[in-house]
UniProtKB/TrEMBL annotation, chain A:
CDD domains: TM_PBP2. Residues 82-309 form the ABC transmembrane type-1 domain. It is a multi-pass membrane protein. This is Carbohydrate ABC transporter membrane protein 1 (CUT1 family). InterPro entries: ABC_transporter_permease, MetI-like, MetI-like_sf. GO terms for biological process: transmembrane transport. Its main location: membrane. GO terms for cellular component: plasma membrane. It comes from Amnibacterium kyonggiense.
UniProtKB/TrEMBL annotation, chain B:
Signal peptide: none annotated. Keywords: Cell membrane, Membrane, Sugar transport, Transmembrane, Transmembrane helix, Transport. This is Multiple sugar transport system permease protein. CDD domains: TM_PBP2 (cd06261). The chain crosses the membrane at residues 21-47, 88-110, 117-143, 155-174, 195-217, 254-275. It is a multi-pass membrane protein. Belongs to the binding-protein-dependent transport system permease family. Residues 84-275 form the ABC transmembrane type-1 domain. It is found in: Cell membrane. GO terms for biological process: transmembrane transport. It comes from Amnibacterium kyonggiense. GO terms for cellular component: plasma membrane. It comes from the Bacteria.
Length: 320, 290
């Protein structure tokens, strides 16, 4: 065997490499087909459909830029929807990130029983989003919910939470903080990876706790903060389930069946997010051309965001 | 850390030990408070699920009569067994299909060098990060042409053609495995399928388990997909979608609603406790390398 290999070393090697590559291609074939069929192609078709009027029943009708001019200059509600989504990007993402970091920082200091505390504080993140939203609408139910009962005990009149246009979004932020466990684990793993001796050296130099956080912990975990913010912003741009379910449950009008998305945005459009509005146009009213135009705008925003940030986040690079 | 602690008495000989105790107390007080906040909603929900429907409408927190009947009644109020079955079918088939299609893809992407690998990897990351709404319209039209809207198949079948996030996650995990064993197997004449099956799979079990659990949970919890594809056909609803519509249809029967909330959560919690280690490692793996 060794003799054969030595004798025909170069061609044999090359054909082995070639065979490896061919096998790799076979292994990747389904995934490549999936990317083309469910991602690349639909992306192109979305752009094409955005220049049409299309209701699924008859063939798409070319209307030029009409959908876009309506979207940017006439649609009375798209601004509200975009601003609601922007609100979640600007408030929900930083609040969740900071809370996750604080809790992770606390957990990173604990020596004994750290596994138990970690599990306890992670548990809320396990609850299925629909279940946690239904539970929170019940908990914050102004009349008889447990939160109202507790507030009553302190002599405080409970606000209307999910039924108050001014408080519906903040109520979802409270929920967002409650389920922040995933982020917490990511931060905790990063903090535990910070080399011990950096803290020891700083301690010998007389650095205070705050200084250690400021000059050692934060710079070391900065890439993870970047990762959390970018993925958080992308998640917030598509914020849908929590808002839609909260509206449905709080209004008592569930989103059932095409054409009856009546609860969307309740109370008073305060929870109408951009993706909900896209859904309402596309799949409740079958204005698929207009929905496609909204999708293209969302794509451009997300693509710009990814283009600006993706290279800086090393897990999103091929690396090795 | 120990060095920091031993170093401190030199600076503040008098208060060192007392301060340490105070810090310990403050930290643990904060932890207890956080744990209470984390668990209180769960406790309230479980307690309410055990009240009579009438009592659930009042401000009381502890059930007067422990009414376990809610967990039976909810199965009669809505076709819960069917919805539960739909969810199980959706989650199990998606996970199996994903494993078949995505484990080899992740392995090839992690170990074999070929032209276009960088582009393919970027495409997978972008597909994983872009909002699904961006491609929702054409994909919906595609499935409606195949007359599969109204069922969960449009959400299950694509997993046969790879799931971007799973491929990404498993590739990250495969990269952490030592290459020596695979190389040794190759020298012994083992092909890539053999290396994957006999050498890599046994070592990569935690990473594969994490990807499988994530996909299982995502399918089990999914609301947007079933809303898009099954909302007109309640026979196809998974339990998460059924729960979201429950109050609209059945008014304010909070005790039964909370029983259903508990039922939908139980499978997730049970799976979590069986596979906690792989799961937590998986979460850390998605972001820890920055």
């Amino acid at each position: 065997m060794t003799v054969t290999v030595a004798a025909v070393r170069r061609p044999r090697r090359r054909s082995l490499e070639g065979r490896r590559r061919r096998t790799a291609l076979v292994m990747l074939a389904p995934a490549i087909a999936g990317l083309v069929l469910f991602f690349g192609l639909p992306l192109v078709v979305s752009v094409l459909l955005s220049f049409t009027r299309f209701d699924l029943l008859s063939a798409p009708q070319f209307v030029g830029l009409l959908n876009y001019t309506y979207l940017f200059t006439q649609d009375p509600d798209v601004g509200t929807a975009a601003l609601n989504t922007l609100w979640f990007v600007v408030i929900l993402v930083p609040v969740r990130t900071v809370c996750a970091m604080l809790v992770a920082g606390l957990l990173a200091r604990v020596r004994r029983g750290s596994g138990v505390w970690r599990t306890l504080l992670y548990l809320p993140a396990l609850v299925p989003p629909v279940a946690s939203v239904v539970a929170f609408v019940f908990l914050f139910n102004p009349g008889t919910g447990p939160v109202a009962t507790v507030l009553q005990a302190f002599g405080i009149q409970s606000p209307l939470w999910f039924n108050d246009p001014a408080l519906a979004k903040p109520s979802l932020v409270i929920l967002g903080v409650w389920v922040t466990g995933d982020l917490m684990i990511v931060f905790l793993a990063a903090m535990l990876d910070v080399p011990r001796d950096l803290y020891e050296a700083a301690g010998l130099d007389g650095a205070s706790g705050v200084q250690k956080v400021r000059f050692i912990t934060l710079p070391t975990i900065a890439p993870v903060i970047g990762f959390a913010v970018v993925t958080g912003v992308i998640a917030a741009l598509q914020y849908f389930t929590e808002a839609a379910v909260a509206s449905g449950v709080a209004s008592g009008k569930a989103t059932v069946g095409q054409g009856t998305a009546t609860g969307l945005g309740y109370p008073n459009q305060s929870l109408l997010t951009y993706t909900e509005y896209l859904y309402a146009h596309g799949f409740a009213e079958y204005q698929l051309g207009y929905a496609s135009a909204m999708a293209v705008v969302l794509f451009v925003i997300s693509a710009v965001l990814l283009g600006l940030t993706m290279r800086r986040i090393s897990v999103f690079r091929m690396a090795s | 850390m120990t060095a920091v602690v031993t170093a401190r008495p030199r600076v503040q000989p008098a208060s060192g030990r007392g301060r340490r105790a105070l810090v310990w107390i403050a930290e643990h007080a904060a932890l207890v408070a956080l744990a209470v906040l984390a668990l209180a909603p769960v406790v309230f929900v479980v307690l309410t699920s055990l009240m009579t429907s009438q009592q659930a409408l009042t401000a009381s927190i502890i059930p007067k009569v422990w009414d376990w009947g809610n967990y039976v009644r909810v199965f009669r109020t809505v076709p819960l067994a069917q919805w539960f079955g739909n969810s199980a079918l959706y989650a199990v088939l998606s996970t199996v299909f994903m494993l078949v299609s995505s484990v080899p893809a992740a392995y090839a992407l992690a170990t074999v060098r070929f032209r276009g690998a960088g582009l393919l990897f970027t495409a997978i990351v972008v597909a994983m990060l872009l909002p699904p709404q961006v491609t929702a319209v054409p994909v919906y039209v595609f499935w409606s042409q195949l007359h599969l809207t109204g069922t969960l198949w449009p959400l299950i079948l694509p997993n046969l053609l790879g799931d971007a996030f799973s491929i990404f996650l498993m590739r990250q995990f495969f990269l952490t495995l030592p290459a020596e064993f695979a190389d040794a197997a190759r020298v012994d004449g083992c092909g890539e399928w053999g290396v994957l099956w006999r050498v890599v799979l046994p070592m990569a079990r935690p990473g594969i388990a994490a990807a499988a659990i994530f996909l299982f949970f995502n399918s089990w919890n999914d609301y947007y997909g079933p809303l898009l594809y099954t909302s007109e056909n309640s026979a196809s609803w998974p339990i998460a979608y059924g729960l979201a519509t429950f109050r609209g249809v059945h008014g304010t029967d909070w005790s039964i609603t909370m029983a259903m909330t508990v039922i939908i959560t139980i499978p997730v919690v049970v799976i979590f406790f069986f596979a906690q280690k792989a799961f937590v490692e998986g979460i850390a793996l998605t972001g820890v390398k920055g």
